[in-house]
Design a protein that fits this description.
Largest sheet: 4 strands, mixed
Order of helices and strands: HEHHEEHEHEEEEEHHHHHEEE
Helix content: 25-40%
Number of helices: 10
Number of strands: 12
Strand order of the largest sheet: 4-5-7-6
Radius of gyration: 22 Å
């Protein structure tokens, strides 16, 4: 058992972190700032976790839980995701539906917080919020914006990267009908040069073709985003792809502009 002095010292140190503007810490921080043995420190930290005073989303990494979030056991992932990914030394950005919500396409299920990174990580659940990880090998090169949070900054995929990812990972974003609904709300945020940057970084022609088709179906007039998609595809080798992956393609019409087989009917939830 940790001695009362070790427990008290660590508890006081954790309490003082908020006054220093810090909301996360590591076991290395605890070792350098407090006394006691490794075993005593571990038991003291486990006690704080059980009391929901701190949250441990990853081995050796802890988040201070403010009083208003102790009932659910953790603050929102937005508060600590940047610090966690820096601790893991992994590139990342908040993406898909979680990113779309930042740009006014607020169709995300509140139970999920979607993050793109470069290697698989274990799904993380605390209280009502679940962090879902998506492996994107090009995430380090993909454009993102930095937004402020209560505890610092967070990386959010640009609207253009978000649009491409929504199509690429449609099965995790409510499938194509829901993706089309979100794209309807996102399309006004899409720019020509930012779309080219996202396309160059991701380099997924099939996603570009499907995105071009969906944007064209939703908004028949030319737009900066569709112009960029057409320009990029004209200089990039690509083949005919099905609109709905994993579904039969025989006897379905072909969209000659985007080289997409229209093997499903897209029915957005409503006009944006």
């Amino acid at each position: 058992m940790p001695t009362p002095s070790t427990r008290g010292q660590i508890a006081r140190w954790v309490d003082g972190l908020a006054a220093q503007g810090r909301s996360t810490f590591t076991t290395t921080d605890v070792q350098s700032e407090t006394g006691g043995t490794n075993a005593a420190r571990k038991l003291a930290l486990n006690r704080l976790v059980r009391k929901r005073l701190v949250f441990q989303p990853h081995h050796n990494f802890y988040v201070v839980v403010p009083p208003e979030y102790r009932l659910v056991g953790a603050p929102p992932p937005l508060w600590y995701i940047d610090a966690l990914m820096r601790f893991l030394a992994l590139p990342y950005y908040v993406g898909l539906l979680s990113a779309a919500a930042f740009y006014g396409a607020a169709h995300q299920a509140p139970q999920q917080f979607q993050v793109c990174t470069s290697r698989p990580l274990r799904r993380l659940t605390r209280g009502p919020v679940q962090i879902l990880w998506f492996v994107k090998k090009t995430v380090a090169m993909s454009p993102y914006h930095e937004r402020t949070t209560p505890n610092g900054y967070v990386r959010i995929s640009t609207p253009e990267s978000t649009a491409l990812d929504l199509v690429q990972y449609a099965q995790h974003a409510g499938h194509l009908n829901h993706v089309a609904t979100v794209l309807n709300e996102l399309r006004e945020s899409l720019s020509y040069y930012e779309m080219l940057a996202a396309l160059d970084a991701s380099n997924v022609p099939a996603a570009a073709q499907r995105l071009g088709f969906l944007l064209s179906e939703a908004h028949k007039a030319q737009s900066p985003a569709t112009d960029a998609l057409e320009h990029w595809l004209s200089n990039t080798p690509h083949t005919t792809v099905p609109l709905q992956r994993g579904t039969a393609t025989e006897d379905f019409p072909l969209d000659s502009r985007w080289h997409v087989v229209i093997n499903t009917v897209i029915e957005p939830d409503g006009d944006a």
